[in-house]
């Protein structure tokens, strides 16, 4: 140990003197110094053990004594016993065994007693050291398997640099598993070099460091990474981490919970956890649509390539990274890689895509054919805004049809109101295309145009003029109709709705409109989103029968 | 085990019949299995049924013929039977009306004649969909209440069950089991053959039928084949308690909305838009989709309109087997099995699939 018994007792006396008077604690030194590691800047970790029945606080007290940082924790005997019991219960499923629990148990078992030796021995006797070594070894081995399987998947997907990093993580975990079996159970990998020195197998030590050094050399080059993976898997197996043969076909692509696919026109949207919407570019969409759940990863990759996207690996890896799919190892459940003593694993969320306008009647804008773009709206608002966009277009068409009828019959005031209705509907569509939802009141739409980017703001004057127009003669009506047509065209160009069918031109275009409406309503219903019209909700959520017509 | 009995099973090679036969022989009963062809009895898991020779006797027969077309020796054996379980039926849709009449109606009449002749108690396997096209709750004690029937299959099954009820009124000991849409095993989703609803799911998921008339709150009642076989076997074994009862062997319905939500969980699956039947026009479909619609989808579309729930009070009170927990989780198991078996998930064919293959007339799935 880098500190003598006398130095430790002195530090303890000084530390205890700063604390309020308490029970007659038993005290141990935990952590790197107690393990025989450490250096002058290492913390001093004291654990005070009492026989209290009440739980003692988990938060440490921080002190600075003689230039050293001292942390003082307290635990009751019962709390320590509970920790050991929980460890035994969790040992059967190392994947679910808490790293914090394992660490607490290890630190206590590896501690150096300073006071109350009898009590310390009594508590340490609750879990045999050999049993703890087994548990810790299994825990590391489980993690090594996850990392190596994940690395194998990335290798299969041509994500070589990332694969190399995970191989390296798996290598650390594998050698930690092996070392735990030889008594080197301290979790923090920082002291791995000293642990390997003490483990008494220079051959293992040397091979580990050689492979660790080779990770850098293998970075980024497919064949080199594959060879590195192969070598590390063989070494891991020799260290006792079995169950990871180099057989990527044992990796299967599985359903991720609460991930659904919704296609509108050609645009594929993937909704994660009913909250996040990913819009997929054409190539990404084709790869996504080629995914058949339950199939081996190499088959999935080949099927994706068959869509014409030769470099599909990074796309599949992105789906995996974002938690849109899950990988499983046959017979061993979901692959859940985690770096040693790092943040818990989980899906990554990319920054939101910043296209403007954001939405068209066919779906969200994308950054390009390979885009797996997070829509910068929560799913429910995305759906509500897009439905509002579709319905706005329907109302525009409806109003223009009404305008033509009113003008034919010389109903000038009806024509004026109908034109205003069309302008408002077009503006609602415009706001919706930029993701505004709920919408401003119709009377406020023009005033709120500054909410939108400059291109959309330019419509302000035209909208104002149209809303103020009056009609008292056929020529004025014709001009109003023409200007309205221009205005709607401009709005559609700005909003990206130019592909929208003119709903009332024919039975086919009306049917196409309805189909688009049904598709969006369906997504909205899945999300329990606000529907723009009660009638729309009826179409999907209720029987769908027109109430005044027999089915 | 119940007291060993001798049971005549018609449709013993069908999906339900094979599983009933397997259960009966495993429980120590002797089964006289009426088979239309000389093939093996294949269980739902695809394995050949193996039973001791004394427990299983194959009888070559045809339910469409009087005496089931059995020879004299077989008829003598039948005369000594303790029960008849009548599973044989044509359950595919879109077949000639006469075939349903021959197999499902005349076949049942022939079975009834045999049962009456020897006073053998009968377990008749019907279908819950004798309820016809209606909404609300279908009760087990209802039969012909003037309902509109969805297709010739349903008409034939209603007529057959009516014959059975008349025979019961004349004193024949009878119990009726009505499965809903028989699908894969409860735990694994495994199914021996992809019939009834499966081709519909295939057309939808492959995007060959994109627009389908239906209501999102319509309910599809899917029942695992193993549960149906369990109930039929139980009725056979505890016939004294089941006599006179009609039992709905049903699962927990999934609405079309749930069905559609679950399909959306599979990246490769297309999800059809269900449109109000009043707005639907098959003529407006693209030519290829129209062909699929007319050949397959139109046969099943009435199931997408019915907001029906099957009351199963009698079954719940009688059976010791818990009603299977259906819903989306069960549907996922069925779809997962379809993917695993390669039935779904393959590239769409270039041309319309042929109409459903001819089913054996000595037994098949119930719908």
Structure commentary:
The complex is a heterodimer of chains A (551) and B (367). By secondary structure, chain A is α+β, with helices and mostly antiparallel strands. Chain A folds into 4 domains: 5-127, Beta Polymerase, domain 2; 137-246, Four Helix Bundle (Hemerythrin (Met), subunit A), CATH 1.20.120; 251-374, no CATH class; 379-542, Up-down Bundle (Four Helix Bundle (Hemerythrin (Met), subunit A)). Chain A is built from 19 helices and 14 strands. Chain A is elongated and about 105 Å long. The N and C termini of chain A lie far apart (86 Å). Residues 540-551 of chain A have low confidence and may be disordered. With 367 residues, chain B is α/β, with parallel strands linked by helices. Chain B has a domain at 6-183 and 222-252 and 308-324: NAD(P)-binding Rossmann-like Domain (Rossmann fold), CATH 3.40.50.720. Chain B is 35% helix and 15% strand. In chain B, the strands form 5 sheets. A 7-stranded parallel β-sheet of chain B has the order 3-2-1-4-5-7-12, sandwiched between helices. Chain B has a two-stranded parallel sheet with strand order 6-15. In chain B, strands 8-11 form a two-stranded parallel sheet. In chain B, α1 (15-26) links the parallel β1 and β2. In chain B, α1 (15-26) packs across α6 (225-237), α5 (197-205) runs antiparallel to α9 (287-300) and α8 packs across α11 (327-341). Chain B starts with 5 loop residues before the first strand and ends in a 26-residue tail after the last helix. Classes of the chains: A alpha+beta (551), B alpha/beta (367). Chain A: This is DNA polymerase III subunit beta. Chain A: It comes from Streptomyces monashensis. Chain A: InterPro entries: NT_sf (IPR043519). Chain B: Pfam families: NAD_binding_4 (PF07993). Chain B: Residues 10-231 form the Thioester reductase (TE) domain.
């Amino acid at each position: 140990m880098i500190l003598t018994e006398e130095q430790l007792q002195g530090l303890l006396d000084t530390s205890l003197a700063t604390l309020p008077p308490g029970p007659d604690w038993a005290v141990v030194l935990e952590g790197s110094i107690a393990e025989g590691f450490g250096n002058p800047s290492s913390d001093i970790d004291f654990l005070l053990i009492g026989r209290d029945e009440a739980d003692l606080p988990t938060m440490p007290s921080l002190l600075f004594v003689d230039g050293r940082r001292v942390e003082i924790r307290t635990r009751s005997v019962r709390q320590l016993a509970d920790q050991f019991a929980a460890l035994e219960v969790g040992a059967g499923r190392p994947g679910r065994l808490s790293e914090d629990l394992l660490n607490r148990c290890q630190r206590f078992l590896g501690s150096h007693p300073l006071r109350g030796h009898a009590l310390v021995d009594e508590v340490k006797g609750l879990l045999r050291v050999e049993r703890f070594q087994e548990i810790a070894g299994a825990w590391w081995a489980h993690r090594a398997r996850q990392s190596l399987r994940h690395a194998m998947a990335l290798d299969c997907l041509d994500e070589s640099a990332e694969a190399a990093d995970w191989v390296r993580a798996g290598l650390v975990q594998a050698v930690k598993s092996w070392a735990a079996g030889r008594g080197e159970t301290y979790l923090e990998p920082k002291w791995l070099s000293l642990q390997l020195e003490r483990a008494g197998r220079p051959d293992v030590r040397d091979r580990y460091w050689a492979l660790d050094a080779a990770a850098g050399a293998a970075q980024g080059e497919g064949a080199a990474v594959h060879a590195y993976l192969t070598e590390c898997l063989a070494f891991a197996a020799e260290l006792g981490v079995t169950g990871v043969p180099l057989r990527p076909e044992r990796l299967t692509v599985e359903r991720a919970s609460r991930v659904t696919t919704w296609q509108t026109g050609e645009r594929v949207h993937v909704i994660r956890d009913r909250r996040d919407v990913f819009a997929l570019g054409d190539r990404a969409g084709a790869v996504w649509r080629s995914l058949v759940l339950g199939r081996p990863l190499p088959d999935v990759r080949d099927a994706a390539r068959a869509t014409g996207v030769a470099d599909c690996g990074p796309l599949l890896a992105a789906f995996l990274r974002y938690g849109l799919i899950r990988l499983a190892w046959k017979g061993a459940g979901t692959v859940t890689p985690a770096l040693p003593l790092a943040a818990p694993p989980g899906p990554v969320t990319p920054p939101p895509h910043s296209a403007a306008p954001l939405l068209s009647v066919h779906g969200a804008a994308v950054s390009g054919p390979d885009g797996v773009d997070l829509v910068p709206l929560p799913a429910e608002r995305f759906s509500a805004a897009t439905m509002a966009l579709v319905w706005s277009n329907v109302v525009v068409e409806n109003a223009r049809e009404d305008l033509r009828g009113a003008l034919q019959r010389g109903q000038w005031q009806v024509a004026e109101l109908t034109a205003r209705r069309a302008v408002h509907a077009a503006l609602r569509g415009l706001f919706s295309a930029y993701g505004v939802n709920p919408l401003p009141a119709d009377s406020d739409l023009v005033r709120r145009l500054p909410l939108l980017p400059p291109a959309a703001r330019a419509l302000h004057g035209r909208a104002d003029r149209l809303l103020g127009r009056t009609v008292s003669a056929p020529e004025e009506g014709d001009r109003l109709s023409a200007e309205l047509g221009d205005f709607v065209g401009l709005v559609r160009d700005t909003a990206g709705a130019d592909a929208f069918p003119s709903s009332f031109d024919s039975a086919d275009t009306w049917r196409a409109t309805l189909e688009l409406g049904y598709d969006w309503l369906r997504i909205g219903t899945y999300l329990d989103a606000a529907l723009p019209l009660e009638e729309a909700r009826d179409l999907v959520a209720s029987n769908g029968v027109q109430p005044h017509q027999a089915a | 085990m119940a007291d060993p009995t001798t049971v005549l099973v018609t449709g013993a090679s069908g999906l339900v019949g094979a599983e009933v036969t397997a259960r009966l022989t495993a429980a120590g009963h002797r089964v006289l299995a009426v088979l239309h062809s000389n093939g093996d009895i294949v269980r739902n898991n695809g394995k050949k049924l193996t039973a001791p020779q004394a427990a299983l006797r194959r009888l070559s027969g045809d339910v469409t013929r009087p005496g089931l077309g059995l020879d004299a020796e077989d008829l003598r054996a039948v005369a000594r039977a303790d029960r008849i379980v009548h599973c044989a039926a044509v359950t595919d849709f879109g077949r000639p009306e006469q075939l349903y009449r021959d197999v499902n109606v005349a076949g049942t009449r022939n079975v009834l004649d045999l049962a009456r002749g020897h006073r053998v108690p009968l377990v008749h396997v019907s279908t819950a969909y004798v309820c016809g096209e209606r909404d609300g709750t279908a009760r087990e004690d209802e039969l012909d209440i003037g309902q509109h029937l969805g297709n010739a299959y349903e008409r034939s099954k209603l007529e057959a069950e009516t014959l059975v009820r008349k025979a019961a009124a004349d004193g024949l000991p009878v119990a009726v089991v009505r499965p809903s849409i028989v699908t894969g095993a409860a735990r694994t989703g495994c199914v021996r053959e992809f019939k009834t609803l499966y081709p519909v799911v295939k057309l939808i998921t492959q995007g060959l039928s994109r627009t389908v008339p239906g209501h999102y709150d319509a309910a599809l009642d899917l029942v695992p084949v193993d549960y149906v076989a369990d109930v039929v076997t139980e009725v056979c074994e505890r016939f004294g308690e089941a006599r006179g009862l009609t039992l709905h062997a049903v699962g927990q319905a999934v609405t079309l909305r749930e069905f559609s939500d679950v399909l959306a969980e599979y990246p490769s699956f297309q999800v059809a838009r269900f449109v109000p039947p009043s707005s639907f026009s098959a003529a407006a479909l693209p030519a290829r989709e129209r062909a699929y619609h007319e050949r397959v989808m139109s046969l099943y579309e009435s199931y997408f309109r019915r907001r029906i729930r099957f009351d199963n009070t009698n079954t719940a009170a009688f059976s010791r087997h818990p009603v299977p927990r259906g819903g989306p989780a069960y549907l996922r198991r069925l779809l997962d099995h379809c993917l695993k078996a390669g039935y779904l998930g393959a590239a769409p064919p270039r041309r319309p699939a042929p109409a459903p293959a001819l089913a054996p007339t000595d037994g098949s799935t119930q719908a």
